[in-house]
Every structure is written in C-alpha cells, then in structure tokens.
C-alpha cells in the first residue's frame, strides 16, 4: 500500500511476504505488518508513525489509557478506517467483535451470525459456529431474549464463520458482569486453541491481559511504547509466580505508579485459606473448562 492518504488497507499479506516494521518478534511468521501508520483527526495525530508486527497464532493484548488510539488502531486493522497514511498489511480473512454485540433485533440469532457473508450461506454454517460458542440451542431466538453473555457469544460466532486468520477483539468483555466475564475469557482462550489464528485484544484490564496473552503491548501518545512477552506457565492465576511483578510493571507503564505494589501488599496480608483468583486454561496445553 502506498503512503498516500485515502488509500485502502492492503489485505494481501501472506507469510513471508514483504518486509515489515522491525520488531523483536519478527523472526516468526507475521499475520500483520504495520509501518509508519499515522491517523489524524482535526489535525491531531491519534496514531503517530506507528510500527507493529503481529505473529501468526499469537495472542496479543493491547493496553492503553482512554484516547491513546488503541481502538482506532484496531479499526484500521479491521479495514473500517481508511483515512490513513503508512503501510498496513493484514490477512484477507479477518473478523472483529466489539464491546457491543451489534446484533440486528429484527433478525434471529442464526441470521445475525451469517450477516455480511457473501452468497446465500445455509443455516447449518451458523449453527456450527453457535455450537462452538455453546449457543446452539439459541439459534432461532430473537436477540432481545439473549442475556449479555449470550449476545456476546453470538457476536463471537459471527466472527468465527468468517474463518479468520486474524481475530480483532475491541473490549468484548467490558459490559459483562464479573462471572460472565470469566466464562467469556475462557471461551475466547478455547476458541484460540481450536482455531490457531492471531488474536489482538484491546482492553483496559491488566489482569485480563496477563491471564490471556502471549504478548502485551502498551500504547501511549499514538505509538507502541512498551512491548513484552508474557513468559508465565499455564494455566495461570492472578497469584501465579511472577504475575504480580508483571502486573506492577504494566501498571507503571500505564502511569499508575505503585498500584501493583500496593495490591501485592494487600494480597500478602490475606488469609492463606483464601483461594487464588480463577485460573485460565492454557489455550494450547491446559484443560478447557
């Protein structure tokens, strides 16, 4: 893609093609390559000369304060925002799920899942995806009858029918209650295990990032300001060795000085009989729950 404004995001990336932005993760096959990306609104650069490589099969989480440009970056990768300059190479097959499920209320769930697919796909395709997210029995329901967690699973099913090589998730758990959120996180981990696609999850939740990610990025001032691998054994818990140190480091990068150390001291004073926070299965090696 040329670096002129108003040029479309190029979606012809194949493993091993075209030189991408130099990063410490470039040795692996790339699912996404971004070089010199800039996106401005009213003369202000929300994304400013950003370079990024995302690897095939890698679960990456993007953290950042509100307004730092992380959702804008996700929209660019999804092909929903083309008013850019720079080079963006993404897979042809990609899908996105947002915080709001965005289901059409006048279409039954299975028809929502097939929305946007070319041709006349059969209901069985939707039902297969709904089965994968544990929602097969709700295929014929109206969206208004779904719980928040069910609606979000329907949104994930709609992404899965596209057989994506890149799955983009823009804070999909943000509106869910705590217990439903845990189940949704586990579901996404299991889907990643089965599908093997690259995932980019945008979130504000540092613990969520560390429980799910192979790699965590912190975005600041329109660029990737911090990039770290999460080398924790799986399955993981909030109390896993090394978790608190990583949390503290990420909170510091996010400008929340001392928050991780304060929480660590609080945890250390709790009764040893208190069970640690919920574990997440390793999407590759753990036992799915």
TrEMBL record:
Superkingdom of the organism of origin: Bacteria
PROSITE patterns attached to this UniProt entry: ABC_TRANSPORTER_1, ABC_TRANSPORTER_2
Comp. bias intervals (Polar residues): 263-272
Xref: Gene3D superfamilies: P-loop containing nucleotide triphosphate hydrolases
Domain ABC transporter span(s) in chain numbering: 32-246
SUPFAM superfamilies (alphabetical): P-loop containing nucleoside triphosphate hydrolases
Molecular function, one GO term: ATP binding
Annotated segments matching region Disordered: 1-29, 255-289
Record keywords: ATP-binding, Cell membrane, Membrane, Nucleotide-binding, Translocase, Transport
Pfam families associated with the record: ABC_tran
Record's protein name: ABC transporter ATP-binding protein
Organism, scientific name: Streptomyces globisporus
